[in-house]
Amino acid sequence: MLVWLEDAGWNAAQATTEPQHNAAFTLWQNQSWPLIVRRADADAADDEICLGLPLPPDEDTGTKVRISLRAQVRHIRKTTGAMELAAVLQSSNTERAPLAALERDAAGLRLRVYGSHAMEAITGLPYVSPTSDIDLLFHPASRRHLEEGVATLSRHAARLPVDGEIVFPGGAAVSWKEWQMAMANPAKVIVKELHAVRLADTASLLALLDPA
User: Fold this and answer.
1) In what order do the strands lie in the sheet with 66-72?
2) How far apart are CA 132 and CA 186, in angstroms?
3) pLDDT tens for residues 193-210?
4) Are 14 and 5 in contact (CB under 8 A)?
5) What is the pLDDT of residues 127-180, one digit of tens each?
6) Helix locations, the chain, DSSP H
7) Under a CB-based contact definition with an 8 Å cutoff, are residues 140 and 207 in contact?
8) How far apart are CA 175 and CA 189, in angstroms?
9) Catalytic residue among 135, 163, 201, 210
10) Counting Cβ atoms within 10 Å, is residue 91 exposed (0-12), middle (13-18) or buried (19+)?
11) Least buried of 4, 61, 82, 194, by fewest C-beta within 10 Å?
12) Residues in a beta bridge with 51
């Protein structure tokens, strides 16, 4: 999820961050770029939201710096879901033909993008490298929709570095590759939620979906 802060939120965050991050905070505030919702800290208050600001990889070392911060809910100006694949396609450095083929084939899946490709599309900064995955979010509405989505991602993974997660109703997220393996060879899967990470069996997650 993407979050835009009001000036008061930026000012409060900058007052508590390390000095070496001030330039990044100022740039994000001036450009009105969003932050990314991350897993909640155990000691976060009910009126706080935990956010991340991922910087582009260092051009010499490839080191990735991810700045963690918190903001008061009252300082949030706007929120949206992750970017749609069609929007990211317009500015992607990935070979366009395979990515466009995925976008066409997945038209009914409403795939969304996070990670390096999304951040480069939002900011124009150089996040994407030859080794970058294409991180996708897929929100199935039914068991049939889930099966179709995993099959589509699997087909295109032969030509694209497709990664990402299935997001079940309620926000439980599971790696689509791990889900595919668990369905072929029954096993529990790692479930990521806003406040926790846990193991769950596939049947409990399937029960969240429309059986049609």
Assistant:
1) 66-72, 48-54, 35-37, 2-5, 76-80
2) 30
3) 988 999 999 999 999 998
4) no
5) 998 888 999 999 999 999 999 999 999 999 988 999 999 999 999 999 999 999
6) 7-16, 22-31, 85-89, 96-105, 116-123, 143-156, 176-184, 202-206
7) no
8) 8
9) 135
10) middle
11) 61
12) 37, 69
Strand 162-167 relative to strand 134-138, pairing: parallel
Q: Is 4 exposed, middle or buried (0-12, 13-18, 19+ CB in 10 A)?
A: middle
Q: Measuring CA to CA, which residue among 153, 164, 167, 171 is closest to residue 40?
A: 171
Strands 35-37 and 112-114: unpaired
- Per DSSP, the three-state class of 42 is coil
For residues 162 and 153, what is the distance between their CA atoms, to the nearest angstrom? 7
Pairwise CA distance, residues 198 & 202, whole Å: 13
Active site residue 133: yes
Q: Which two tokens stand for residue 2?
A: 């993407």
Question: To 10 degrees, what angle do helices 143-156 and 176-184 make?
Answer: 110
Give the global pTM: 0.89
Active site residue 163: no
Q: Which residues pair with 83 in a beta bridge?
A: 113
Residue keyed to tokens 């369905």: 183
